[in-house]
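Exam revision sheet. Question 4 asks you to relate a sequence to its structure. Input first:
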Amino acid sequence: QVQLVESGGDLVQPGGSLRLSCAASGSIFSVKIMGWYRQAPGKERELVATITIDYRTTYADSVNGRFTISRDNAKNTVYLEMNSLRPDDTAVYYCNAHIQINLKMPPDDYWGQGTQVTVSS
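Answer key, structure tokens:
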């Protein structure tokens, strides 16, 4: 059984910074792509950033230059460093990981429970 546990969400003022973490645990053979998505009230879930096992990254245009995704493969953990936060960054942030639990099984998608980020003065 695989679990993704996020942490780091909080209330922050505009222009502030936050760091989200997400650790994958359980029966894991390999963690392929890891990423962060977010969902604001009344909106669809959207991609924020992804990072491959060999550290290639992609970002949504809205966060490029402000957010940085990174990972620690030894800890099966992904991070999202968020700077210059704006009110429109307010959302529940979800961790996603493409995980292979053994050599016989193809990778599958797993999701965390979500962590709330609120940007407000």
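Marking note for examiners. The chain has no helices and eleven strands.
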